[in-house]
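Running this now, will post back.
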Amino acid sequence: MKKLREKFDLTQQDLADIAGVTNKAVSAWETGQKEPRMGAIEKIAQHFGIKKSNLIEDGGMNDLSEDPLTIAAHFDGEDFTKEELDEILEYAKYIKSRRK
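Update: finished.
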């Protein structure tokens, strides 16, 4: 979970809000004290458009590319340059940072 938070630049509270749990629950997941329930895993996976296995399996987050070109999958039929995709990614991060 920590790797997911770092990838999307989230606080424990941000992830807790997405999963519908407390930030203490997220902390417990990250320290290995507790495992997230399937409902929380499903909410997180759906929010980020990733597979539940990315969250459950060891090394599952390694399957997610850091390359902004993966964004292109959301723009079927569009041709964007790497610079444009980088800009889209930065804008998405900005939008996420304004969520409350």
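Residues 68-97 form one domain. More later if anyone needs it.
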